[in-house]
Design brief:
Radius of gyration: 20 Å
Number of strands: 0
Shape: globular
Distance between the termini: 70 Å
Order of helices and strands: HHHHH
Number of helices: 5
Helix content: 55-70%
Length: 118
Amino acid sequence: MLPFARFLICLSLLLPLTAVAGDGEASPDAERLDAERLETLLYQDCGSCHGMTLRGGLGPALPRDRMQTLSPEALTHIIRHGIPGTAMPGWKALLSEAEARWIADHLQTDNRLKSLDD
């Protein structure tokens, strides 16, 4: 194979990697899709125990005012490591630190359930 052809093949294989790696920042579309995925996970997967509207079920209710009593770091830790002796599992195998932090922040600021009185 000609050296130039080999170069073009290698270059074509690397271009998708540079598009993914970029400058380390996600595009607004990628961030939006990730936020949508995490919000879906929160209201469906977490909702399977905490209730689809986060009003409680097997697990306790997760209203915004209750979530604000914890630091974002503590809430992130609970999400990733669970609560020993309870039904709350750790999600560390499925969620990165950043993803767990996004969920913690969402529960404290953008949570649809502001309080149990809503």
